[in-house]
Amino acid sequence: MTGGERNVWSGCGVNCPTWRYLWLLWVRFSPLDSVAAFAASQEGARMDLAIRSAIQDGIGNLEVAEPIKWHRRGQVVSANVALRNTLGCRLSLVIRVPVPCPFQAVILVRDHGTHPNNAVRLCVRGRHVNRRSDRRHWLPGTHLHIWTPEYGDSHAVDPRPPWPPDGWHEDADSATETEILALVRTFCQMLHIAFDPATMWVAPDLKPQPIVLPDGDEIP
Ligand SMILES: [Zn+2]
Which of 71, 79, 127, 156 could form a disulfide with 143 if both were Cys (CB 3.0 to 4.6 A apart)? Predict the structure, then answer.
């Protein structure tokens, strides 16, 4: 600025009491924080979407990182093991086997990212209707839930190759420990998850537990 020019703002900079007052009002009541939070959530959602797409496409060098450890709660035996990966995300493989009907296991990849959710979920011989999307149904039938931004993990499709496992019977009403292992192996192959049963597989205990009555008696 040359000496002859006059800056129209020069007489009313941030030191001017009026501007200062307006500035303080803006800082105090502006929605900047909520705008920033919204932008962060959008960024998080985009990141989650990218990670879930990679999981669904079998990208990310997922690998079962620890031996499977089973927990029993009531009539469900379940495991939750870490999945090593190159996506920079905390992922786990979750297996749930209902003891009264082990032929209806559920196997999924859990994304513990900004918005935790199931990226992929296999429901073995489960009942399901795509109520929010194309209304396809499996009543019952093995189906694969694929997380999408529109429908979360409520949308299902047919399982992909190499499904089904060798010797598969969709209408079976029992399952052995060996068949549970075959399910887990096939699920891992479907998503290119490295899984070495020789070092990582431990069979679940599917024996029904006796019900203990308050007086200590057991109903076998
Ligand atoms: Zn389902």
Answer: 156
